[in-house]
Each structure stands twice: as structure tokens, then as C-alpha cells.
Amino acid sequence: MRPLPRLPLRFLLALLVAALVAGCGFHLRGSGSGQLPYKTMHIALPETAEVRIWLERYIKATGDTRLVDDPKAADAVFQQLGDNRQKTILSVNAQGRVREYRMQLNYSFRLVDGKGREIVAPNRIALSRDISFDDSSVLTKDIEEGLLWRDMNNDLVNQIMRRLSLTKPKDPEQEDD
């Protein structure tokens, strides 16, 4: 009979830490988030709107919420209140040429039920990114700007989904005063 090998102290410590982290409810960012508390949802935006396309992707990928075309048949209706995107000069060099731009995105939305009662009060999300500029590489900076706008859209939709997933649906039997 061979004696049982001694487990190294490091292994036991790692196993203990893993058990503690798993037991405390720890989840990686993004896992389990995005579950909307609504069975059906309507997005009141044009079919080609970037925010609508991204929201549809997230909703279809993360939960049981079904997207419907009729706002009256939906448990929740997403309404855009404002979408303002602008690019402003942040700094110039000694010759008066632009060195940096600031890209800003201000977005506001609300959520109502099929009867028009407000579920989520108007929310405002403000994002900004700074981008350096160089006259000698205009094409690459243009591509970089496009990627930053795309990153901002992704961040915007992530924030919208987080805010919507935290809401609690109102009881349909209960009427507002």
C-alpha cells in the first residue's frame, strides 16, 4: 500500500479561494445581466437606427424577452427622447491646427407600457471620447473615429440594457392615479 500524496498548500489555498468566490454569488461582468423583466417589448425607433439594431441584438442574445411590432401588444415600449452626437475641437497646436477632438454622445430614453404609462422615467446617458488628430494621417484617424463611435454605441446599449434590466414591471391590474 502506498501512502496518499500530500497536497501542496498552494493547491488547497487556491481551492478554498475558488469555493469562496463561487459561493458568494460572484459573476463575471456581463454574465446573467441583460435579462429584461418583460415578456414582450417594442422598440419605437426606425428599422435602420443603429441603437435599435444594437438593442435588438442584445435582447435576442441575452434573454427571454420577445420583440413585437405592435406597441399596444408589448409589455414595454422603448422610446428614444433624444440622440445628440457632436465632435468639438479640444486643443490646437501653435500653428492653429487641430491636435485633439472630443466626441460626445448624449442620449435620453424612457420606457412605457402598452397603454402609455411610464415604467422607467426619462434617463440620460452622456458619453465622451477624446481623439488625437494628425494632418499626415487623415485616413487612419477617420477610421479610428469610426471605431470610437462604434465603441460608444456599444457602451450606450450596454448601459441601456443594464438600466432596463434593473426595472421592475408594474402590476397591470394596478392603475395609476
Automatic annotation (TrEMBL):
Signal peptide: none annotated. It is a lipid-anchor. The keyword Membrane applies. Its main location: membrane. One of its GO terms (cellular component) is cell outer membrane. Keywords: Cell outer membrane, Lipoprotein, Membrane, Palmitate, Signal. One of its GO terms (molecular function) is lipopolysaccharide binding. Together with LptD, is involved in the assembly of lipopolysaccharide (LPS) at the surface of the outer membrane. Required for the proper assembly of LptD. Binds LPS and may serve as the LPS recognition site at the outer membrane. HAMAP family: LPS_assembly_LptE (MF_01186). Belongs to the LptE lipoprotein family. This is LPS-assembly lipoprotein LptE. It comes from Azonexus fungiphilus. The gene is lptE.
